[in-house]
Amino acid sequence: MDSQACHSVGDDSMRALVFLDWKGRSCKATKHGGMRAAAFLLGLQALEMMAIAAVGNNLITYVFNEMHFPLSKSANIVTNFIGTVFLLSLLGGFLSDSYLGSFRTMLAFGFVELSGFLLLTVQAHLPQLRPPHCNMMSEAGDHCVEAKGFKALVFYTALYLVALGSGCLKPNIISHGADQFTEDDPNHSKKLSTYFNTAYFSFCVGELIALTVLVWVQTRSGMDVGFSLSAATMAAGLISLICGFFSYRNKPPQGSLFTPIATVLVAAIIKRKQVSPTTKLLHHGSIHTEKFRFLDKACMQIQGAADRKHSSWTLCTAAQVEQTFSVQQGSAMNTQVTEAFEIPPASLQAIPYLMLIVLVPLYEIGFVPLARRFTKTDSGISSLQRIGLGLFTVTFSMVSAALVEKKRRELAVGGSDEQLSIFWIAPQFLIFGISEMFTAVGLIEFFYKQSMAGMQSFLTAMTYCSYSFGFYLSSLLVSLVNKVSSGAHRSGWLSDNNLDKDRLDLFYWLLAALSLLNFVNYLYWSRWYSYNPSADSAAIINLPCVEEDYSSFTSSKLMEPPHIPV
């Protein structure tokens, strides 16, 4: 083989992945996997989302009213918490793909999340773990004692136990559910697309129940009761996970994800002076992009070295080379529906999920089959097109929020007795929900289908990681806007605890402009990306479920402690 040819013997990265049952044996098609097994994970998805959404969507109320943090700091605490949840999904995906496997990762970190909910319940119930009661919205609000010391430590410990558990769960729920569908099924791509839409539907059901029933309980019965319901719901989710234990197709851990990446880079650098080989010689039917052809040199075999034993660090195979302020806005509006019933502001976020419970099935059974006739794509439209449509739509949510806040503030500042109804902020939530239906599912489908074998959980976690940067930048943006908009004789747009004195409407206009810029930025990068439709069927090459035992795996049964190399 000369220097232009690619080493293909023993192509480890394209080897078949053998999915195992709970005893470490090859699974059986009649007993393992399919939508029956995925249903247990969809139950966990709905129940875990129900638990954390009830906390996260009303958290700003607890932080502001009970912990007595200023409004801008409270908003940052919430966005930092949610951002941390999404960022830690990378840890969950890495541990799952590399060492633990999906089931053990979900089980371990599910109990971590449950412990966080229980600790929040204890703090909300015991007055000695919270600052003295004080009305932050009154004239004396500036003198309320902020939570510090041990009380703040308990709060942050509980909050980030929840973040750690939820973050490590999220990517594994999605990827483990998708792993239940076998590649040898000719309708695999269609079933996978249906599964992703169904997973988002279960997400919407969890959010809806959290934002109606659980938030209402928090408002009427206290945060301690609300947090305890989140804990009970999380426990039910873990029961759903365990009930499917005997039905799952389990993907064995593949070792460190970073070793093949590092070997590609090292090998490419060592061979940087070699002439790049032709694509036909490199890729025998495997996925390949013409971008970054420099890395193709990593799989070259140097002349005169054919008879030498190659280190994996100098010879690589070709396939290896490849809304926080809206709740406070609602609090400043008329929440009365009847004389006996008021809508909790946090429950307004249930409006998009109520609509999505109808829209997601219509999208799956109506739009997808219709679009499939024209695009010949199993999912109706490509995942990149779906993401772009969602990013474009979200701009209108910010525009709606800005217009409503301007009207609400004018009435409040003008001394009018009329108070804008809380239903005026429903459109912004509805548009945002529709945007999420396109963006969230599109991102998950894109990362899962385009990922390399053995990296599905980690790359699915990239979806959540992208959200985390948004939440962290949100916190930075709030602080930056306050600094830039403040002056010697005026306060910043978001620097006061009173929205009537703040300029939340201008902040929403800024978000609308940033959303539009983000969409334009996405268009550039998505056009630059070389989309591989064949990746839908080549991301995982797995063997059909058969009855033979694979003795090499029997010593590492699913429930045995994993060996993690130091």
UniProtKB/TrEMBL annotation:
InterPro entries: MFS_trans_sf (IPR036259), POT_fam (IPR000109). The keyword Transmembrane helix applies. The keyword Transmembrane applies. SUPFAM superfamilies: MFS general substrate transporter. It comes from the Eukaryota. One of its GO terms (cellular component) is membrane. It is found in: Membrane. GO terms for molecular function: transmembrane transporter activity. It is a multi-pass membrane protein. The chain crosses the membrane at residues 38-57, 77-95, 199-217, 229-248, 350-371, 383-404, 424-446, 458-481, 506-525. Keywords: Membrane, Transmembrane, Transmembrane helix. Belongs to the major facilitator superfamily. Proton-dependent oligopeptide transporter (POT/PTR) (TC 2.A.17) family. PANTHER family: OLIGOPEPTIDE TRANSPORTER-RELATED (PTHR11654). This is Major facilitator superfamily (MFS) profile domain-containing protein.
